[in-house]
Amino acid sequence: MKKINTVVALAVIAITVATACATTSDTGGNTAANPSEPTAPTLTGQDIGEANGALDALLEDALADTGVTIREYLVLRTLGRQSPRPARDFYDYLVGQRQLKLDASTAVDTVRGLEDRGLVTGVDPEATALTLTPEGVDLDAALAARAAPIATQVFGEMNPTDLQTAHRVLRDIIDRSRALRASR
């Protein structure tokens, strides 16, 4: 995001989930033409991935002439909400966000690139106060202003109850996935 910050990205995915929830409840869970035939799950990881990809495309368009990648934007947004904080903790957090597809060295390199542009300070892994600079704060706000209309266009006319249901279902998917992974 979420994606637009990470929260907004989850909201785009929520569209898919809300639609799937409505379809399943309308058909008693069976979406096959013949109700006696087994069906594939109404919602799959592919659906969620496609929704995320659609949102990424919109965000890429919004950021196209800024010189900032989606990854950098998300790092700026996250750091703007979680700073100051110890650099190593922040890098570990980024690596734990699988949707960013960052390993430890790429996380550090991404933040160092922002430092080279004067947007963050305290990037050394042992630093205790990784934070945005005033220029970083300004850029974060400017990029958020570019992304905000997208969220309004995508979600503005959606039923708030559907979005709440989608959010709840997505959180449940995240929790179940983490529990399954931990049990292996």
Automatic annotation (TrEMBL):
This is Winged helix-turn-helix transcriptional regulator. Residues 1-20 form the signal peptide. It comes from the Bacteria. The keyword Signal applies. The keyword Kinase does not apply. The lineage of its organism: Bacteria, Bacillati, Actinomycetota, Actinomycetes, Mycobacteriales. Residues 25-45 have a biased composition (Polar residues). Residues 25-46 are annotated as: Disordered. Keywords: Signal. PROSITE patterns: PROKAR_LIPOPROTEIN.
